[in-house]
Amino acid sequence: MSSRRSEALAFSLVTGINNAMARLVDIWDNIGIMEEQRVERMETVKQHIEGLLNDMITEEEALKLRIRANIITFKKQLDTLCLEMSMDPYKMEEGLTVLQIEKNLRLRVEVLTKEKGERLKELHGLQQQDKELCVELCVTPYYIPTGSMPSCTQLQELREHIQTLSEEKKSRAKVFSGLREDIRKLMEEMGHEPETSLEKESVGHDEDVFLLTHENIKALKLLLCQMEVKKESLTNTLAELKERSMCLWNRLDALEQDCNVFQESVMGTLSDQITQWQGELDRLTDLQKTRLEDVIDKVRQELVAFWDKCNMGPEQREPFNAHFCDNNVTEELLALHDAALLKVKNYYDQVKPFLEALQRWEKYWALFQDFEKKANDPNRFSNRGGALLKEAKEKVKVQKMLPKLEEELKKGVEAWENDQGSAFLVQGQRVMTYISSQWEEYKQQRGKEKSERAALQTSKKGEMTTPFKTPTKRAHGGINGPTPNKIRKKMRPLESSSSQRTPLLECNSTERKQPVEISYSDFASALSKKTSDSVFNSTEKDPTF
Fold first, then answer.
1. pTM for this one?
2. Can you give the C-alpha Rg of the chain in angstroms?
3. Where are the residues of the annotated region Disordered (predicted)?
4. 3-state class of 470 per DSSP?
5. pLDDT confidence of residue 464
6. Angle at the Cα of 238 (from 283 to 231), degrees rounded to 5?
7. Beta 429-430 vs 425-426: how paired, if at all?
8. Residue 429: beta bridge partners?
9. Which of 258, 259, 261, 328 is most deeply packed, by most CB within 10 A?
10. Measured between alpha carbons, how far is 274 from 266 in angstroms, rounded to an integer?
């Protein structure tokens, strides 16, 4: 369509020139211009038209050259931009004219140039953020070579890097804030005044005083740890002062009301409380010096109570007897008693689990002996209402618990003795020796009772077969009644008062005969024979109370 229009326009141009020449010829004819003059005039017209067309051709040729030069320039610029911006080379469409190629290249260069500027502007802003974050966190900035054009991938990675650093900053700021708050609270609780520059900065209100570095976090954590250790030390000191003061209150028979009033008056920081309790302790210590005799007597009573709690025999108490019997009341004597009391208290704390286990064993041991006593009572089968069934269940549990407790004691005590390098003694005996002595004593008592019963039966048979013998009055209770020889000897409880024990101040202790170790398992077969009746067999599978 365009070619037809240009052809028509060219034809019209030729036609116009021809018409113009025709009119000129007509004018010349009317004027009477001769042929030579006409030729001259036509030559002038021709030159004028050719000159105009040549000028136009020159200008269009120059335009064509400029367009070609622009194409070359734009191609170079485009190649450079694509390379700088890490983009694929620009591909030109086929079949385009020179003018279209120049236009497309020019527009593409303008787009990429604008994008380049935007990238550089964004890069500058992102690098500024990255730099600030890296300074605060003391980390390495994201690397983009100076003067280079960042690719879209690099810009995205830089954005993600900044996002990661921002989150890390928030996290570290939270940690810093928490550490500083904890340190501030600890110092306030203890009444500790900041001394070092780190302590002063950690409790200050300037949030930007610390760079959020790992090193500073470690420094604050170390400071917090030091404050916690100091608080624990102060707390222990305070507890020790309280304990010592309360001990002196007890020794000096202080009024409970006065003690309560003082305790309610104590307030403030840990340091303040320590100062107040230290003052009270000093006052009580001075008061104690004026009442040494009464105080030492009370310490001795407490010492005896702990000896009894620990089941210490005369051999273990004997080394302190000299001080115990010393009537020369002095502060040095009180100090010796306090040291001995502290030692036995520490020992009690160590062996308390074994003492409690031994108490449980003694409880079941007493039940075991009671069941054995009831087993010899012929009237037990006349009991109704389920009591016999309950008794059988309880007996099964006792039979299971005794060996279990003995084994637990044996293992626990052996481990403790190996660790401490000393023996755990019960009334001067090793614990398993003590338990074995109970079994041995029980075994001997059973043998003695059996012999007494056999002798009694023989005596009764002799009385029945002797002729003309005047009947004698039987002892109260008949054949089945108890006799003095049949009263069983029971184990002495370990928690008895000091008046029931071996005298505390014996200077010479007797040698104990060490029995052969016997445990519950040695009596298992004998016990099973005693519990072979049908009622017991029916309950043997239920060991509960």
1. 0.51
2. 58
3. 443-516
4. coil
5. 63
6. 150
7. antiparallel
8. 426
9. 259
10. 9
Helices 35-84 and 2-31, axial angle in degrees (round to 10): 160
Residues 324, 435 share a domain:
yes
CB 102 within 8 A of CB 65: no
Q: In this model, does residue 114 exceed pLDDT 60?
A: yes
Tokens of 322: 């000299």
Q: What is the DSSP secondary-structure string of 407-440?
A: HHHHHHHHHHHHHHTS--EETTEEHHHHHHHHHH
Boundary residue ending a domain (453, 476, 507) = 453
User: Is residue 424 within 8 Å of 352, Cβ to Cβ?
Assistant: no
Span 129-133, average pLDDT = 90
Residues in the chain: 545
70 and 193 share one domain: no
Query: What's the number of domains the chain is made of?
Result: 3
Residues 61 and 186 in one domain: no
Instruction: Specify if 275 maps to a domain.
Output: yes
Confidence of residue 463 (pLDDT cuts 50, 70, 90): low
- Specify the pLDDT at position 92: 82
CATH of the domain at 365: 1.20.58.1520
Tell me the per-residue pLDDT of 394-428, one tens digit each, with 9 for 90 and over: 888 888 898 999 999 999 999 999 999 888 999 88
What tens digit of pLDDT does each residue of 330-368 get? Answer: 889 888 998 999 999 999 999 999 999 999 999 999 988
Closest of 135, 142, 143 to residue 163, by C-alpha = 142
Instruction: Give the helix ranges, DSSP H, for 151-213.
Output: 152-190, 197-203
Point out the domain boundary residue: 64, 99, 119.
119
DSSP sequence for 234-302:
HHHHHHHHHHHHHHHHHHTT--HHHHHHHHHH--SSHHHHHHHHHHHHHHHHHHHHTTHHHHHHHHHHH
> pLDDT tens digit string along 244-294?
999 899 888 888 999 999 999 999 999 999 999 999 999 999 988 888 888
Cβ contact 434:427 at 8 Å: yes
Q: Label residues 211-250 b or e (16+ Cβ within 10 Å = b).
A: ebbeebeebbeebbeebeeebeebeebbeebbebbebbbe
Write out the residue range of the structural domain in which residue 365 sits: 311-378+386-453
Assess contact for 315 and 428: CB atoms under 8 A: yes
Q: Are residues 349 and 420 in the same domain?
A: yes
Is residue 10 one of the residues assigned to a domain? no
Mark whether 325 and 432 lie in a shared domain. Answer: yes
**Angle at which helices 152-190 and 270-289 cross, to 10°:** 30
